[in-house]
Design a protein that fits this description.
CATH class of the largest domain: Alpha Beta
Radius of gyration: 22 Å
Structural class: alpha/beta
Number of strands: 17
Number of domains: 2
Order of helices and strands: EHEHHEEEEEEHEHEEEEEHEEEHH
Largest sheet: 7 strands, mixed
Low-confidence stretches: 2-6, 335-341
Number of helices: 8
Shape: globular
Helix content: 10-25%
Length: about 350
């Protein structure tokens, strides 16, 4: 896999923006249908998975994460992050996928049959890729839902949780009531942090996984993790946080904040491409459900971006099949008869 191109390249059949599992599946299915595919990603291969918590365990079984008809061997009923990253590396190697890592897409010009995707590499150098068709498989994990409160830009505030060790013996606030917040709070507590959890709802969200929910509820019940429900975080300073609780304002000592309040697709990028969003349907992008082609001819959508703000509807387990739908439409439209070099 080459790291980056040095100039505008010859026209390829399909360019996939996003090299996560869904993007990889799209490129694989395009290749298997006889088309030449290139992937670009602003981070590494499976960048979102890489930024998951280091000891994360998937909520699903290995076979539901498989792409390209390649088995996912795992001794565990539920695979972990490192196993998944290794699996997708092996898949990319097996299919000799052309993945351009660490290229950020800045804009897209052209039209169906002759798009140019303008990117920059890690050093700000401009690059360009030409393609007949595009797939947008950018996921949603790159854009956190910000709290928009004073102090959120302090260096002690994070919107992603990775590893518990740096927070041993410290006062840590976790904001959120779903899986990511519950997992982070439990992991931090088990590794010696003093954890306070804040959630605007009256209890942990019903979507918290069935084996995690009793664990977090028991830790709260036993006062091992302090929890404030029906509460919002109002202000963050270097040494404290201020909460708005049902009983009024409460200020707590604090060293670090994890604002794990969810993520969203890059709607601005979709709109810049001309893709229409259905404002009456959770900002779902307009696309043909059979082919996944958007309202912009030649631009396809794959993975969680298809569901708009309903980010809990599409996961690897179902997004991995989008590549077959797109490849079938490419064949039907006879994008190119070119074989591989």
């Amino acid at each position: 896999m080459s790291e980056h191109a040095s100039h505008t390249e010859t026209l390829t059949d399909l360019l996939v923006i996003g090299a996560g599992p869904t993007g990889l599946a799209c490129a694989i299915e395009a290749q298997r249908a006889g088309f030449k595919a290139v992937l670009v990603d602003k981070g590494c291969l499976c960048n979102s998975l890489f930024h998951y918590p280091s000891n994360m365990i998937f909520f699903t079984t290995p076979e539901l994460l498989e792409i390209g008809d390649m088995p996912f061997p795992s001794p565990n009923q539920k695979p972990n992050r490192d196993e998944a990253l290794e699996y997708y590396r092996k898949v990319a190697e097996h299919y000799r996928l052309d993945v351009r890592q660490y290229e950020t897409v800045e804009r897209v010009t052209g039209a169906d049959g002759n798009f140019t995707v303008h990117t920059v590499d890690r050093f700000g150098r401009p690059l360009a890729h030409r393609a007949r068709k595009l797939v947008i498989a950018t996921g949603y994990y790159d854009l956190p839902n910000y709290l928009n409160i004073p102090g959120e830009n302090l260096s002690k505030v994070f919107h992603y949780y990775h590893d518990p060790h740096p927070y041993f013996g410290l006062d840590v606030l976790v904001v959120g009531g779903k899986n990511s917040a519950a997992i982070a709070a439990l992991d931090l507590w088990r590794h010696g942090a003093r954890v306070t959890l804040v959630h605007r709802g009256s209890e942990m969200h019903r979507h918290v996984k069935y084996w995690i929910l009793p664990d977090i509820n028991n830790r709260i019940k036993n006062s091992e993790i302090t929890a404030f429900f029906s509460t919002t975080l109002e202000r963050i300073t270097e040494d404290e946080v201020t909460l708005r609780t049902p009983e009024g304002e409460r200020t707590l000592p604090n060293h670090f904040v994890f604002a794990l309040t969810g993520y969203r697709p890059d709607f601005e990028f979709l709109e810049a491409l001309g893709v229409k969003l259905d404002e009456d349907n959770d900002r779902c992008p307009v696309c043909d459900p059979a082919t996944l082609e958007s309202n912009v001819p030649g631009i396809y959508l794959a993975g969680v971006v298809v569901a708009g703000e309903r980010t809990n509807e599409i996961f690897i387990e179902n997004g991995r099949f989008h590549g077959k739908q797109i490849a079938a439409d490419l064949q039907a439209k006879s994008v190119s008869a070119a074989a591989f070099d």
